[in-house]
Amino acid sequence: MSAGTRLGRLGKAMAAGTLTLALGAGIASCGSAAQGSAGATGPATAVLADLNPTPIGGTPTPTLPVTVDSRDGVPVTITDVSRIVAVDQNGTIGETIFALGLGGNVVGRDIATSFPAAADIPNVTPGGHSLNAEAILALSPTVVLTDASIGPRAVQIQLRDAGIPVVFLDPERKLATVGEQIEAVAAALGVSEAGRALAERTQTEIDEAIAAVPRQDTPPKIAFLYQRGSTVSLLGGPGGGSDELITAIGGIDAGTASGLTKPYTQVTSEALIVAAPDAILMMTGGLESVDGVDGLVTLPGIAQTPAGQNRRVIDMDDSVLLSFGPSTGTVIRSLTAAYYGSPTG
What we know:
- The chain folds into 2 domains: 3-52 and 216-340, Nitrogenase molybdenum iron protein domain (Rossmann fold, 3-Layer(aba) Sandwich); 66-207, Rossmann fold (3-Layer(aba) Sandwich).
- 31% of the residues lie in helices and 16% in strands.
- The chain has 13 helices and 14 strands.
- It has helices at 8-17, 92-99, 133-137, 153-161, 178-188, 192-211, 242-248, 254-257, 269-275, 284-288, 292-296, 306-309, 328-340; strands at residues 28-29, 44-46, 66-69, 75-78, 84-86, 106-109, 143-147, 166-169, 221-228, 232-236, 252-253, 264-266, 279-283, 313-316.
- The protein is globular and about 55 Å long.
- 52% of the residues are buried.
């Protein structure tokens, strides 16, 4: 199961109720190539030169003990960060720890933390998003960093009751809070100085990436589609994170513009036709789950959109697209290159 299953829990809930720029990799294009405007045709893949987080420096020396206010209102004291379990829906926490230089201390991860440097770390969410208490306890963690995006909460509290420091962090993922999240993770691990430096670097990269986006008189409408085979299909809307990425690259979030009020809404052909996106943004794993663009355009409603008619699909690796961690600036640059840049092949 790929890292894109980070939204699997959302998919079940909805079903029940409802480029790279100068980074050394270039743009990978498929089929007929995109030419970089709202009316362009053809799919493109946004590629990062290296999916691994870039450390801010060497391995920092934590200043411990440290006491932080967990998001659930409980003050938590951490005395040892030699064995860290990092688990959240988007893989943000794990990515941040590696970028802080403490990746070697991570002994347990979520399924979304799937970049190469973390691949051999035990996955404690084997079912996608459900934490396994026994698997975590077997790792003898000295601290668990998590948030409300993953659960069951009873498992997280069980770990705390077992004497393990469990720190809940902010589950919201948006551009304005990327730096705050980085500094919160760093504070819990006793490396606040490294956290401040990483937050500053990340914000600079985000600002520069957004400033480099071409601006058009008529911004393109771009829809984020979370797809897992033909059965799980969610259209992104306000608050899901994808809307902020689409805005950052100069687009209009098609789901929000069509009147959606939730971060993710189960797709119907009518909803897609009303959204009328010029382009569709997807995780690479999701696109692969429907046999690529050829399979995607056969799904109900896709062929009736400008994006489907022009095969205008932009995909990006599952492990980074919605992470909203230290790689955010690179993600924006890569998406910009894939959408507006000239193809390399």
